[in-house]
Automatic annotation (TrEMBL):
Species the sequence originates in: Ephemerocybe angulata
A GO-annotated cellular component: ribonucleoside-diphosphate reductase complex
Molecular function in Gene Ontology: ATP binding; ribonucleoside-diphosphate reductase activity, thioredoxin disulfide as acceptor
Span of domain Ribonucleotide reductase large subunit N-terminal: 156-226
Recorded superkingdom: Eukaryota
Protein name, UniProt field: Ribonucleoside-diphosphate reductase
């Protein structure tokens, strides 16, 4: 909608301050003045985008719903939201309804917030929601900043994203939003580049056009007093009660800053361990203490719900109790269900699972060096401790493996990280051993009691780089990634970190996490079915482009900021790229790797650069699929806090069906009735059905294969969801073994299960009996040679590239 049209609508306010529905005829509300005013307003809103003539029936339907549901009195400012909710709830394929819902929410935000960026920031400053230094920048550049705002970029939002923005991301007070969506993006841009208006404009346009989106903390806290910008805080939990209490305090400080928390708990002594005259209570009571602390954390001023993941190595004595913490049923004293859990698995354990050998469990007080070793050194120390009889007890490795898999199928976790892969391929290998991650398994960073790992994150929105013809603009992607690296590196100088150990890590490593989102949408737009060879090639090339641009730009920035203090002795300082740590080196000749290698050896501004994260928050803003996941459903059901329940369809698919006369109420209901699948709808062309297969309709090993393809270009790790239908123990065992053999750092972040390929209902108790009745077969603990061949990294040779009509790389000046 043009900005002039929006201003005209705001100037012609027709809604009275108090609306009395008792005067309305319930059947024909449009006959009465108040209903007529609602109708007139909606007509003007839709008329401003040229839809009034085709919207007479939708207008009547929306107003009827509002008039039938409204209370005795209602404030004028709430009516737009009520009409938006009515439009979004309509069971109709008519696209006027979601369009009207979006426009109504945006119009309501416009009425609440300031008309200009300066007005919004002034109001926020008056309410003490901005830092003085930031507001001074706004004052200094008032005219230039106001001129940058382009309200028409709001047309990219959906109804769901507009609602989420108002409810979660926009600065607001008790009366509603203080800023508009474009003001939010400009606020972030100004935080990234104060006093550099050229860079502010460029990075603002990238966000406004959805070329990339910063992480939720950056969107939420930029410009505020003590801007909290890190997405994660990773630190060990400690061993004695003093350290545990200190950990609780750090959890509170980190949670109030909006970051997810990763706790390393392997060093906690096992239950019954005697240290001096004190018998230790063990893992479970300690984690229950942290778990019970979470509701208190959520009472704070943080804008994001607290998220805590505990990480334990698989050799710990109480690993079996750890696996039970999130299960349903059982004694409450043995459960801690608010937190999430991750198990760190080493190569030696996997070898013993395959060989069906015993596995010895240790208390960390008797095996402290296991936590600080990996690879051959770990195996040597582990075997020494076994021979010396230091183990607590021994079980069969396969019995423990089956318990891990059963827990995953019943509760969705624990997540699995492969310790040796993480450390063998880390650019922080010269500092120490990594044995814990963040909340979603994508942050693989070193931390200890002196350093709390932190990270600034952003994700590129891949569908924004696909042309109308279905080509991918790799040159545009490279330019934007370089701007992201510059902006986030500069942002470290602005970020507030709540305790010294976090500041120490940020100063030493300046870690960044550049990820991606909307892969499934982008592949569909490029006519590449998710599990096709073309999709693998494109996914790999996209990851390669992001990684190269990030490394090269970080090397350039070392001339400005200097190399990060721990660069000396790092693998990068020896000229090793991430892909050099993998058996295969699947790089194309699209980039000058050798030239950049020389710059990288001289210094990089950042120790870490790339990740693959879930993007659950910012994907609601862009309207695309999360991270690198396949379509979970073609009819996704989402609950928007404070707004209600809606069903979302891929917009590009809806547009295609509408253009070909296939999108109507019947088609919409058929897709929903088919559990979000279009595969059995013969009227839809086969090639379109192939492009929009869901996670349950593709080869279930595809996410693992594509993660292996991307792995050589991800210097931290990847958040990986596995899809299991039906939820067989042996199926999940094979998938995890393949992920391990493929060299992945993350075996899984979460498991999605469906009782059967048809989605037939199965009661929880039947599901549990089904799982418990299955035996872990020897074949599920082995890998055949032909399976290994299927997981070879995708080749991106010139021949393959030529067959795909992929353009040459963009050459920077």
């Amino acid at each position: 909608m043009a900005a002039s049209s929006r201003r005209q609508l705001r100037d012609e306010e027709n809604i009275v301050e108090v609306f009395d529905p008792s005067k309305l005829n319930a059947l024909l509300p449009l006959r009465f003045p108040r209903g007529r005013q609602l109708s007139d307003r909606l007509s003007k809103i839709l008329g401003a985008v040229g839809l009034e003539n085709s919207a007479s029936e939708p207008i009547r339907s929306i107003v009827n719903v509002v008039c039938s549901k409204v209370g005795l009195t209602v404030a004028s400012r709430d009516l737009d939201y009520m009409m938006a909710d009515a439009a979004a709830s309509m069971v109709s394929a008519n696209q006027i309804y979601p369009l009207a819902a979006k426009i109504l929410v945006l119009e309501a935000i416009y009425k609440e917030a300031g008309a200009t960026f300066f007005e919004s920031m002034t109001r926020a400053h008056q309410l003490k929601q901005l830092s003085l230094s930031f507001y001074n920048q706004v004052l200094r550049h008032q005219a230039a900043l106001d001129a940058m705002i382009n309200q028409e970029h709001d047309d990219r939002f959906t109804y769901a994203s507009a609602c989420v923005l108002r409810q979660r991301y926009l600065i607001r007070d008790d009366d509603g939003a203080i800023e508009r969506p474009q003001h939010m993006f400009l606020r972030v841009a100004l935080q990234m580049h104060p006093n550099d208006l050229v860079s502010v404009r460029a990075i603002y346009e990238d966000m406004a056009r959805h070329k990339f989106l910063p992480s939720s903390p950056i969107l939420l806290y930029s410009g505020r007093v003590n801007p909290s910008l890190s997405s994660v805080y990773i630190f060990p939990a400690g061993t004695d009660y003093r350290e545990v209490l200190d950990t609780s305090r750090k959890m509170g400080d980190a949670s109030s800053q909006g970051g997810g928390i990763g706790l390393g708990v392997t060093s906690i002594p096992a239950k019954g361990t005697s240290l001096g005259k004190v018998d230790k209570v063990g893992i479970v009571p300690t984690l229950k203490h942290f778990d019970s602390y979470i509701p208190i954390l959520d009472e704070g001023e943080n804008f994001r719900p607290s998220a805590v993941t505990c990480h334990l190595e698989i050799w710990h004595t109480e690993v079996q109790s750890f696996l039970n913490l999130k299960k349903k049923g059982g004694m409450d004293r043995d459960r801690a269900r608010r937190m999430y859990y991750c198990l760190w698995v080493n190569d030696l354990f996997m070898k013993r699972v395959i060989a069906n050998e015993p596995w010895t469990l240790f208390c960390p007080t008797k095996a402290p060096r296991l936590l600080t070793k990996f690879g051959d050194d770990f195996e040597e120390e582990y075997r020494r401790l076994e021979l010396e009889g230091k183990g607590h007890h021994t079980i069969r490795a396969r019995d423990l493996w089956k318990a891990v898999i059963e827990s995953g199928l019943k509760t969705g976790g624990p997540a699995i990280m492969f310790k040796d892969a993480v450390n063998e391929k880390s650019n922080q290998a010269h500092i120490g051993v990594i044995s814990q991650s963040g909340t979603c398994m994508e942050s693989a960073q070193y931390c200890d009691d002196q350093e709390t790992a932190v990270c600034l994150c952003a994700s590129v929105v891949l569908p924004s780089y696909v042309t109308v013809e279905g080509d991918f603009r790799f040159d545009d992607l490279e330019v934007v990634v370089r701007r992201i690296v510059r902006a986030l590196t500069r942002l470290w100088g602005e970020a507030h970190l709540p305790f010294p150990s976090a500041r120490a890590s940020a100063f030493s490593h300046r870690p960044l996490g550049i990820g991606l989102q909307g892969l499934a949408d982008a592949l569909a737009m490029m006519s590449a079915p998710f599990d096709s060879g073309k999709a693998r090639y494109l996914s790999c090339l996209i990851s390669e482009t992001i990684y190269f641009a990030a490394v090269d730009e970080s090397s350039n920035l070392a001339r400005i900021y200097g190399p990060h203090p721990t660069h000396g002795g790092s693998p990068a300082s020896q000229g090793l790229y991430q892909y050099d740590h993998w058996d295969d080196r699947p790089t194309s000749d699209r980039h000058p790797w050798d030239t950049t290698r020389a710059k990288m050896k001289a210094g990089m501004a950042n120790a870490l650069l790339t990740v693959v994260m879930p993007t659950s928050g910012t994907s609601l803003i862009s309207g695309y699929t999360e991270g690198v996941e396949p379509f979970p459903s073609i009819a996704r059901s989402r609950t928007i806090p404070d707004y209600g329940y809606i069903t979302i369809f891929p917009q590009r698919l809806v547009d295609f069906l509408e253009d070909h006369g296939l999108w109507d109420d019947e088609m919409k209901e058929r897709i929903i009735a088919n559990q979000g699948s279009i595969q059995s709808i013969g009227e839809i062309p086969e090639n379109i059905r192939d492009q929009y297969r869901t996670c349950w309709e593709i080869d279930s090993y595809t996410p693992i294969r594509m993660a292996a393809d991307r792995g050589p270009f991800v210097c931290q790790s990847q958040s990986l969801t596995l899809y299991i239908s039906p939820p067989y123990i042996n199926t999940l065992s094979r998938k995890l073994l393949q992920a391990w053999r493929a060299g992945l750092k993350t075996g899984m972040y979460f498991i999605e299960t469906r009782p059967s390929p048809t989605g037939a209902h199965m009661a929880d108790e039947d599901h549990g009996e089904f799982l418990l009745s299955e035996t872990l077969s020897p074949e599920a603990c082995e890998i055949e040679d032909d399976e290994d061949d299927a997981f070879e990294t995708v080749s991106i040779s010139p021949e393959n590239l030529a067959n795909m009509d992929i353009p040459e790389p963009f050459q920077l000046d």
